[in-house]
Amino acid sequence: LWAAGLRYHAGIYYLTSTARYVYTSEFRLFPRSFYVWTKDIFSGVWSDPVYFDALGYDADLFWDVNGDVYLTWCGINNAIDKIYGIYQNKIDLATGNSLTPAEKIFSGTLPEDSSARPEGPHIYHINGTYYLLIAEG
Fold first, then answer.
1. Which of 129, 112, 115, 125 is nearest to 72 (CA)?
2. CA nearest 37: which of 26, 29, 28, 48?
3. What distance in Å separates the CA atoms of residue 113 and residue 116, rounded to the nearest whole number?
4. For residue 12, which of 30, 36, 28 has the smallest C-alpha distance?
5. Given this model, what pLDDT does residue 114 score?
6. What are the φ/ψ torsions at residue 83 (nearest 5 degrees)?
7. Which residues contact 34 (CB under 8 A, 6 or more apart)?
8. What's this model's pTM, rounded to 2 decimal places?
9. Do 29 and 22 touch, CB atoms closer than 8 A?
10. What is the pLDDT of residues 69-91, one digit of tens each?
11. How large is the average pLDDT for residues 42-53?
């Protein structure tokens, strides 16, 4: 598993992560991200995974002030160029399905080529301003 992230919203803990190898014929080519949830992180009892339909890794959940839920992740532009970036879309939290098309929201600060890796995105809303925190290398 890659890049676990923990969020707390409305009394529930959400743990996101990415499974690098999914052993089914339809999802073997690219990492698959998911979340599990619990009301008590110390109980050891977590939900079954809810997989996102967006392909990428380092997924993170964000709840906007209006209640919309967004998925933010690191993905590639296509299978040929493989230029990485930070993508985001609105999702249905219950199913993990996309409600809006994925949009590239940040290319990183390094040259935009296949060697740059903006990763690990987290969105924060603090005092009316949105912040994107990433790792890059």
1. 125
2. 48
3. 6
4. 36
5. 80
6. -95, 120
7. 16, 17, 18, 19, 49, 50, 51, 52, 59, 96
8. 0.89
9. no
10. 999 999 988 878 888 999 999 99
11. 96
